[in-house]
Design brief:
Elements: H1 4-11, H2 21-45, H3 52-73, H4 79-86, H5 94-97, H6 115-129, H7 139-156, H8 161-176, E1 200-207, E2 213-217, E3 220-226, H9 240-250, H10 254-260, H11 268-274, H12 277-295, H13 308-317, H14 328-348, E4 350-356, E5 361-365
Antiparallel strand pairs: 1-2, 1-4, 2-3, 4-5
Length: 372
């Protein structure tokens, strides 16, 4: 169990926004608009829009995050923060009123008929909050009014404050807080060496005169030679580097397992669900999609972060597979390390990729001139 005060403490390190109040107010107003957009989409598509609940949980959580950030900037914290959002509940202390327990979203619930009026009131309350950018005199009253409208909108959406807060805390902490290495998943420690991704590995990547790239591990060629498979040369022939980054940093890569024949066949359930054809296709598709996004941004050259929106799409992509346990911050490390190595591979038309799972790193070094 987690109190609302604990939620505020958990997400405080994720607040990377400027100290000014205005950007936070804009963010909250925008997230309320996103909840309204989800309701509009449900009106348009009805039962076809199966993602209403997931989207609403996401957006309501972001509204809570910005509301908490506003209170933080105004010095409203602790039990005062709880009272501002939920008020006093008869028979319970402030902390007892808002114990956060994750309720399982076991059904795709449609919004209740009362949602539209509730969202209109929430929008009006959000607009009233914008006045705080210039005048703070009525801050407690305006914030409390917004809190009441927010809780009402949650209720008619068939959602709980606990579910929303727990989901948002996990998402934002996983994105912005550096994870404790001891807490990170490893996935294959209980398997024998021939079914594990090696703790350290060196992969030689060479490009022949044909323009095709080749992989070698321990002197053995892996997979098929690759080309860019596109008229406009972009280096995709070296895209296996991203699978190696996944293996080293995330401790996950169905593609790399298949290439080196280290599938976990001793456990048929794990082999079927995590190492077989569909997970391989998921990783290949995800890699190609990230590449298309990265290409438009210069392959993250000189960047030290990845957009939150891109990382959230990854989370959706890998839902249901073991790698969904990896925090988004770890995905960011894997992507940035992979693309740094990719840029060096493309520059040198090959190289050696050194993976180290203990440090969760992937490094590049140039090929020796006599290597073929």
């Amino acid at each position: 169990m987690l109190s609302l005060i604990d939620y505020a403490r958990l997400v405080e390190p994720t607040d990377k926004m400027p100290p000014e109040l205005a950007p936070i107010l804009f963010g909250l107003f925008g997230e309320v608009g996103s909840v309204m957009a989800a309701s509009k989409k449900y009106h348009r598509e009805k039962e076809v829009y199966v993602g209403f609940r997931q989207t609403a949980v996401e957006e309501f959580g972001d509204v809570l995050w910005y509301f908490t950030a506003i209170c933080r900037r105004l010095g409203i914290q602790g039990t005062n923060f709880e009272r501002t959002l939920v008020g006093e509940v008869e028979g319970q202390g402030p902390s007892g009123a808002v114990q956060i327990a994750l309720l399982p979203p076991d059904s795709e619930l449609a919004p209740a008929p009362q949602l539209d009026p509730a969202l209109l009131r929430l929008g009006e309350a959000a607009a009233a909050l914008l006045t705080l950018a210039n005048e703070l005199g009525d801050a407690p009253e305006v914030l409390s009014s917004f809190g009441s409208c927010y809780l009402e909108a949650l209720k008619v959406s068939n959602m709980s404050l606990g579910e929303i807060a727990a989901h948002n805390a996990a998402k934002t902490v996983g994105r912005f807080v550096e994870p404790d290495p001891a807490s990170l998943p490893r996935f294959d420690d209980e398997f024998d060496d021939d079914e594990r991704i090696p703790d350290q590995f060196e992969i030689f990547v060479t490009q022949r005169k044909s323009g095709k790239s080749h992989l070698q591990w321990n002197g053995v060629f892996l997979g098929d030679p690759l080309t860019d498979n596109i008229a406009d040369e972009d280096g995709y022939r070296f895209h296996d580097v991203f699978h190696l980054a996944h293996a080293a940093v995330l401790h996950w890569s169905p593609v790399f397992r298949a290439l080196i024949k280290h599938k976990r066949k001793s456990d048929p359930a794990v082999d079927e669900a995590q190492d077989s054809g569909r997970p391989i296709v998921i990783e290949e598709g995800l890699t190609a999609w990230i590449f298309s996004q990265a290409k438009a941004m210069g392959f993250f050259d000189g960047r030290d972060s990845v957009s939150f929106d891109l990382l959230k799409e990854i989370q959706t992509f890998v839902a249901g597979y073991e790698v969904e346990r990896c925090p988004l911050k770890l995905w960011e490390h894997a992507i940035l390390q992979g693309y740094r190595a990719f840029l060096l591979l493309r520059k040198h038309n090959g190289g050696v990729l050194i993976g180290d799972r203990s440090s969760r790193t992937l490094r590049f070094k140039p090929l020796m001139k006599d290597h073929s």
